[in-house]
Amino acid sequence: MSAIRVTLKDGKIAVDESRVKASVSGGHKVKWKSHDGEFHIEFKAGSDWPNPVTTKDGDVWRAEAGPFRDAGRTLSYAVKAAGCETLDPDIEIIP
Q: Domain range for residue 26?
């Protein structure tokens, strides 16, 4: 399971891992969290994966996707937040 920290600062979005691996056989999920504010994960066109819902737990914003299927592909997604430039990292789905 991957836990990705999302940072929102000065109109920019950063993640501490721009490419993560998620195992189908391991039932991995990918989790994002931010202490800086609300963000949204949007899978790119051509992906049949649903966009995760972002929730707030205290002062932490969280989103989660998975477990994944279809090993051997890469899911591209965007991290979006109001007032920030969009960021485009990837999730590599492995066996």
A: 2-94
